[in-house]
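ENTRY TYPE: paired fold submission
RECORD: A
CONTENT: sequence, then structure tokens
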Amino acid sequence: MKVAFQVDQLWFAAPGGIGTYVAELAQALTALADGPKVVGFRARIDGTPHRPPGVPVVELAATIGRLYPAWALLGRPHLPAPLDACDVVHATNHASIPPVRRGQALVATVHDLAFDRFPTLFPPSWRWLYRAGVRAAIARAHRLLVPSRSTARDLADRGADPTRIAVTPLAPALPTATGDPGPVLERLKIPRPYVVCPATIEPRKNQAILVRAFRQAAAELPHALVLAGPVGWRTGSLEAELARGGPGTIVRTGGLSAEDLDAVYRGADAVAYPSRYEGFGLVIVEAMARGVPVVTSTTPACSEVAGDAALLVDPDDVGGLADALVRACTDAGLRAELVRRGRRRVEGLSWAATAHATLRAYRQALAEVRG
């Protein structure tokens, strides 16, 4: 089997979780003993990838601004040679759904429907692209891949055929070191002890409410709060919250390298991730894989991924979030239990398992096309 695999996201300014998905899955697919031959493709984008795609890449002639709308609305242009000879075309970002030729199967990954739930939090052009792309995916894809049962339900509610939806959970992806994280923390000016929120700064990640809850808990915690992530968009609510001032130390690191982020995870007493909406929640499993207690939200995907291995809090409950931070950092028995449950929770998650599930979906899609 030969698969045309979209890798645009690796060239984006902020690849995010989709970028992790693209890089990890491409490499995991090629590592399977019975895996497909994978050929990457991308629109014309200036610059270099944030991570190597790990597969050969065909650059298309047009830019994202021309390709994505044309694919969604017109179903053209088709992918050029040698991609037109592939058995399967995998659209890995739900903003862009390329057309397929006769005899080719189309598989599309829909990571989440945040653009539907929080439309004002997206730039208008991307909100339109996501909506148009998901409509095209529902109409044309032979298999729709989603990272969680929660996203599967959201997609079915939007009109997708449930029999064509396959859940392919994600897995920890950051390389894990074993050395002392101290030198990295010192360089980043992060005082210990601390709680970390590793996420792009944007309203959906809910950092403003987290800051308010942290300040409410500060009288019972000697910890700092570390906001570890690049600036995304619509940061005004967080900036306003920070400007109000209050007790406790808050550190902002900006975007971090994989090695630095790993060290920041490992040095933390707890990870706080009170996101308002996720398709999966990679932060949760990265923390659990490192034995760090997690406080996250009761929203569907976060609670699905966390199970009974994290403290779950309504993302709007400032007092409840403050209490959970205190418990996760100070209750030794609870901390030990969360660590034990968290490690058990991630035991079955691997990119090899994700690749096997994806390959199964490729085969099902191809069988549907070719009979």
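RECORD: B
CONTENT: sequence, then structure tokens
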Amino acid sequence: MWQAVLIMFIAMSMIPAGDMAGKLLSVEQGVAPAFIAWSRFALGTVLVAPFVPRAAWRLLRDWRIWFRALLLASGIMSIQIALKTEPLSDVFAAFFIGPILSFALSALLLREPAGPMRTLLMLVGFCGVLLVVRPGFGGSANLGWAVLAGCFYGAYLTASRWLSHLGTPIELVFSQLFIATLVFLPLGLINLPTPSAAIAGLTLASAGFSMLGNLLLLFAYSRAVSTRLAPLVYFQLIAATGLGWAVFGDLPDALTWAGLALVIGGGLTSAALRR
């Protein structure tokens, strides 16, 4: 169990690190978010391809797999747009509306059980997101992209539960990466940056950290039950805050700290109730 916990902490640090590299690409190198998103999918496809069985190609004949992949692709595109102007911790806090929406969609569409206490905790997390975004009360309009990314991601999580029986995790990961690469190819080519060592390194880091983080996540879930590991997903918020402070000098204000506390506290308590 402790080995799985350590793997989860590493994975949850790598995912924000990939987004940090994407933010550096857009802020310091002037690379378009569309290219950052497309390159992440394209390089991820290359990294995963050697480990994918031929049976994975059959998944591409199912429209539901395309729908699921487009949800994820739209979410990644939206979060890259938000990262261009917003602090890493704020973007991740707003993005965490995703698990809240997934909870609601899973209860409504998949008929998964939702007790009153868990519903209350999800509302607490939603209030935390509102404290970060503060719509109409001094919050940045560009954080709306992070909220939109979270909505896409929440729908993606529900679709993943709906379609989990169609293939193995590695087959499903490959299908979503390949489809997103194909769909975003025109945008990626239109927004190709002028090559440089810095852009190449950050592009590789953005794709590599994200892919390794998600692969380690799957590896951790193969070693321990998901209900025990689920609370550790919220370590992404802590890692994003630390990376944002270390690299960009961004520290959340008092209301954002309060929002982060509500999102993390509600998520951890909800996950503990599932045990």
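NOTES ON RECORD B: The first helix runs from residue 2 to 28. The mean pLDDT is 82.
STATUS: closed
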